[in-house]
Known about the structure:
The complex is a heterodimer of chains A (about 400) and B (about 350). Chain A is α/β, with parallel strands linked by helices. Chain A has 2 domains: about 55-175 and about 320-390, Response regulator (Rossmann fold, 3-Layer(aba) Sandwich); about 180-310 and about 395-410, Response regulator (Rossmann fold, 3-Layer(aba) Sandwich). Chain A has helices at about 1-35, 45-55, 70-90, 110-125, 135-150, 175-190, 205-215, 240-245, 260-270, 285-290, 320-335, 340-355, 365-370, and strands at about 60-65, 100-105, 130, 155, 170, 195-200, 225-230, 250-255, 275-280, 300-305, 375, 380, 395-400, 405-410. By secondary structure, chain B is mostly helical. Chain B folds into 2 domains: about 1-305, no CATH class; about 305-340. Chain B contains 14 helices and no strands. In chain B, α2 runs antiparallel to α10 (about 200-230) and α4 (about 85-105) runs antiparallel to α10. The chains are: A alpha/beta (about 400), B mainly alpha (about 350). The interface between A and B is large, with 51 and 44 residues.
Amino acid sequence: MKKSQIKKWLYPLAVASLVMLSACGGGAQPAGTSGGGSTGGEQPAGQAQPAAESSKEPIKVGAIFSLTGANSPLGVPEKQAVELLLKEINEAGGVDGRPVEIIFEDDKSDNTEAVKAIKKLVSKDKIVAVLGSSGSGPSLGMAEFAAAEKLPMISMAAADQVTNPVRAGIFKTPHTDVHGTKRIFKYLQEKGITKIATLNDSNPYGSGWTQQIQKYAPEYGITIVAEEKYGTKDPSMSSQLTKIKGTDAQALIVAGTNPAPATIVKEAKQLNLGIPIISSHGSANSKFLELVGDAGEGVLMVAGKLLVPDQVDANDPQAAIIKKFVDGYKAAYNAEPDGFAGYGYDGLNLLVEGLKQAGGDASKLGEVLEKVNYVGVTGEFKFSAEDHNGLTEDSMIMVEVKDGKFQLLK
Amino acid sequence: MKQVIQKWGKSFGIYLVLMILFPFVMPDEYYRSVGIIIGLHAIVTIGLCLVMGLAGQISLGQAAFWGIGAYTSAVLTTKYGLPPLVGLVASAIVPGLFAFILGRAIAGLQGYYLAMATLAFGYIVQIGITEWEPVTGGASGMISIPRVPFFGDSELSMYYLIWAVVSCVLLFSLNLLNSRVGRAFRAIHKSEIAATSMGIDVRRFKLNAFVVSGMFAGISGGLYAHYMGILDPQPFGLHESIKFLTMVVVGGMTSIWGALIGTLLINFISEGLIAMSEFVPGLQGDIDTIVFGGILVLIIMFMPEGLVPRIRSLYEKSRAKKAKAREELQRMERKATT
């Protein structure tokens, strides 16, 4: 009885060890030859390349956005803008006569899902470049993989870390907290304000702002007299505001995404805070106006020009593309595009521009993009070897809430 | 060990074959990365199973140990340049220490109070990681964490590394279950008072189970950090703890295999939903949370002992029935001949 039982489990073990042996042999092979770039897996792709150009095989691009979860207010308009532009590009003949095909994935605002999604796109769909993601965490995870795989990537996330330090082939389209901070400080200098208080979200977005404000304040002769934080889901920030009221701050900077900045503005009014509030571009959209109601009068904001498309100066180099984008988006979705939609739009435009200049050869995309100059809806992108964001603070504007609308400050 | 082989040899053999063959049945890189994630979850759930199923405790803060492990290894390798293997060893020890301290502090708590204490611990750790910016990088996290060198750093080698760890953890737990310690745990699970009166040091056993589960979660966290290459505090919250809990409960708390099967099942459902969402657009995004919640409710209502113990008892019942039928038949035959 005992003998037969041992036999019973020995058999599968023997099979397992055999398989293990063959597994080791198989596993070592790709690792050994991947440097040469001619493994079994890559060969079909290589063969398909020359044939593709004659038979107009599509250029496959991946796009990972946060379509659900906490970042979905960012991801959904990004995807819509990309879909809109994609149709236009393919109707105009695509790149070098080849249509562009985009495979969308949802990262659920989750880092692990984003990394899984980019791996799936690379191994299953054989994409040549990737757009996304909406949030900073997922984007950083994707960038880690994309950099190792030498896959060109254009992110729509705000965090400075995505392109700082610069990595080959990793780019991003949104304004960073550096631009926002510098633009606000410029405005404060003009107004002669030197003492500020900050009340920022404790999430990656808000803490990024806190760091940049600390870094650039001395350069602009500004002192931070109070530095407060709040949690993304906190229902009230009145205790922080009361603290700030007790200081001699001349202005309050708020960096977070809605609804918290709107709550802060409302509570500041109840407390009679009495100093100007400047909110970041993370809250600059129509949702803020809706949430804040009458209390929002006089609130200042730093934002991209897309926030007030009809107030952009006709001589502005961006005026034409902003008008085209806004009209197209309104016609397609019957809604005003926000900054996030603009990030997605610029991302795909930059990618296509790069592909065109590289003659449809995606392997050169990383180098080519470093030389691309492109006027987008977010700003004028001037990529270089040291700058993979390519924007300056001058592409941002200051607006004031007046009669329930955003009004450009000249 | 011998007893373990006798009792679980067959299942373990099947497990080994399936585990080793999986990357070749699914030769897609994507499914290998799914396999890696399942392995990482399995290490945590096997540890959680020891705490819940054996020692009869509940832990709503398992993701916290996972996070401590992840950050320990990440900080040591990225900031201090230590090799990943040292980081991984530390990622077992540090969460173990935390578990020891927490376990001592809450040793007297039971039921809801224990659940609340572990829940609070989970929150404290997540907030602590977020606020300790100079070390952990705060909410924006850490990047460029090195990979673990293990026969190269391909997806396949990472898969085998992680499943090798799963196998070790599994063997350890099965062995434990079948020893004096395991019997003591089962006694505690049934009745603490009875166990105490039999001379079992209940406090010590509970503490040990807690520490071991913390260490398992820590190792898994360390591997996760090196696999992902980036870290931020977001994955280490209550949501993940509940997910681990669901996996254990679905599979069956009292069975180590249950934890593994539960982990597989939940991940397969998750992947299945993703695959189906290509054809049914309504299945996108947070739908999996709803499905998991539904499964949890159904399991607790109709199958509180979990999937694996239920199937096992059904199997045994049918075998007993067959044996009985055979016996009956023999008796009838004997009667007929006489």
